[in-house]
Amino acid sequence: MAAYLTLDDLDPGGSTVLVRSDLNVPLEGGEVADDFRIRMALGTIDALRTAGAKVVVCSHLGRPKGPDPELSLAPVSRRLGELGGFAVHQIDAVVGSTVETEVAGASPGDVMLLENTRFEAGETKNDPELSDGLARLADLFVQDAFGSVHRAHSSTVGVAERLRSAAGPLLVAELESFGFLLGDPDRPYVVVLGGAKVSDKLGVIENLLPRVDRMLIGGGMCFTLLAALGHEVGNSLVQEDQVDSVRRLLEGPQGDRIALPSDVVVAEEFSADSPASVVGVGEIPPDMTGLDIGPDTAADFSAAVREAGSVFWNGPMGVFEWDNFAAGTRAVAEAMAECEGFTAVGGGDSASALRMFGLADSVSHLSTGGGAGLELLEGEELPGVAVLERWL
Ligand code: ADP
Ligand code: MG
Fold it and tell me: Is domain 7-169 given the CATH code 3.40.800.20 in the classification?
């Protein structure tokens, strides 16, 4: 496991601390549409502020190719201030002499938010000049952006090479939860995977299959596995180029740990109001599309989740955004809430499903990161975490 300093090792009072948070939230009409990540980031910022540090927060937002007013962090500043109950001063650049002057003029306990780090072309290239510019703003660096540490950028790796750095409490909580899932979690250990593409999660299946007791697979990705077993899947989502790989896993030594749906909800069209019907997996009509797991499968999967000692869930069981196809995802979410073991959920869409059902507070760990969690579960090292080790 990775090793790093934590906030307890820093003495931030009186220092200027640059915090990399993950404030990459959806915006709608210039306002924050979902403030989950802001609420999760708040604790670390508040702890540094009340410890008497000058707090300079930075984050990326979306994928701008350069400065783009639509992807300004200004709405995030406002929401951060409202939620935190403290003033947040929005700085309208990422680095440079004006930013340095503003930071120098701030007082201990002040919170500032830099502009979107991806307004700087150097960010995604881990450009040394940008990293130098970020490092000039502070005495210490706190990495708290779990959702971003799988990328080697200036605000994740470059700056952490230059300033004495620690992992923030949110990052530590994330790493500990995933570490638990990769260690020796309480059994039965159940993993539930769904979502759109099997290609996104093949590495996770491969790395976790030897560790789990059961792996339950639904969502769009299950149809590639069903197709590999020779089932007719109609117009359902199948990634032809993945069929051979998943067949190898299904036929491999731990293939019998994989549970696939026995029934599915199908519709004629990929649309919210296309009438839904339930069919066995052997009976999917050629002109129909599978959009959710069926009720028998939902009952089986739910029972396995409820009785688990530890569960990790990533990826909805169906197109939960549409009521007609949300039942499977809801059943798994409710079973997660009822399970008395350790329950962890990763993935942006899975997290929003859980929140849609009002169950976000009912799991042991709701991850703020999608890709970073998947990379950890694939057995990869995260560059933004590995870089912290040098400061031990
Ligand atoms: P997460 O963000 O939790 O990792 P993904 O991004 O992998 O999840 O997948 C989420 C998407 O998968 C959702 O938008 C959902 O509508 C879609 N999905 C789930 N089941 C199906 C299906 N049977 N056919 C097509 N898309 C599906
Ligand atoms: Mg997603």
Answer: no
